[in-house]
Amino acid sequence: MKNEAIKVFQKRKKNIQETWMKLQLSDESLREDLMTNEDLRRQSDELLTAFVEALDDNNIDDPRSSNFDPVVDILSAISISRAKQGYTPRETGFYVFSLKDALLHILQQDIKDPQELYTQSLKIIKLIDSFGVTTFETFIKGREEVILRQTDEITEISTPVIKVWDGIVALPIIGTLDSARTQVVMESLLQQIVESSSSIAILDISGVPAVDSLVAQHLLKTVSATRLMGAECIISGIRPEIAQTVVHLGIDLSGIITKASLASALKTAFSILHLQVIKK
């Protein structure tokens, strides 16, 4: 004999949909700027249809059943999409848990036996709560993807390699240098050296807030990599406090040309290339 809750859901699917939509539309945090009501209804109908079709007597109390794979796939896609669109975890969670409220509401209307209602309600609560956990897990995954992409974009923007003259490139470094960022800096710089056939690279650290032994090691690695490509490296932006720190830490920069300003470094680069800039 078919489970009582399943019979109710199959018979009252349209009513469940309408109740669910009313709950969502009445929520104060509804984001009509991110999704139209029509799109929300279409999305909700797709999920509800997959859920009702997947339900049977064997899996109504087993959220791990393979029959629910289409439901999980739809939920995962919705969660990742909402994470990328800018929805909050609460808004995404409410989408799933309002479905639970709609299902329980219809059960209360159609199942009159208190014990049967209690039994079936527990099964639905367990099922939807499990889907809620899946929703949060995939939402976090989607948000992490957004953060990683934004981090990569910010890193690329903050490490621009500029061709300032024929044979001279400059890389203004803004922010702290760590291992990951040093790798990006080196890749960008070396690639530009090859593409522009430059023989001098200027590393400007005016935007680096502080230099410690670790930052200095990263700079030395970048200088060494640049020299292996056949280019000379000049470090500019050596402020008085950075110079004192370098001396205090015993960091040896004696084999590297260092300048206080980018203008001074560019003047030195011109001298190395036997160029002369004359004011007309």
What brief labels describe this structure?
5-stranded mixed β-sheet, alpha/beta, 280 residues, 10 helices, Transcription Regulator spoIIAA, Globin-like
Order of helices and strands: HHHHHHEEHEHEHEH
Distance between the termini: 98 Å
Radius of gyration: 31 Å
Average pLDDT figure: 87
Shape: rod-shaped
Could you explain the architecture of this structure?
The protein has 280 residues and is an alpha/beta fold. It has 2 domains: 4-155, Globin-like (Orthogonal Bundle), CATH 1.10.490.130; 162-272, Transcription Regulator spoIIAA. It has helices at 4-11, 13-25, 37-54, 69-85, 89-110, 114-157, 179-196, 213-228, 240-249, 262-272; strands spanning 162-165, 168-174, 200-207, 232-236, 257-259. A hairpin with a 2-residue loop joins β1 (162-165) and β2.
In short:
The protein is of the alpha/beta class. The chain contains ten helices and five strands.
Fold topology:
Layout lengths: L3 H8 L1 H13 L11 H18 L14 H17 L3 H22 L3 H44 L4 E4 L2 E7 L4 H18 L3 E8 L5 H16 L3 E5 L3 H10 L7 E3 L2 H11 L8
Parallel strand pairs: 2-3, 3-4, 4-5
Antiparallel strand pairs: 1-2
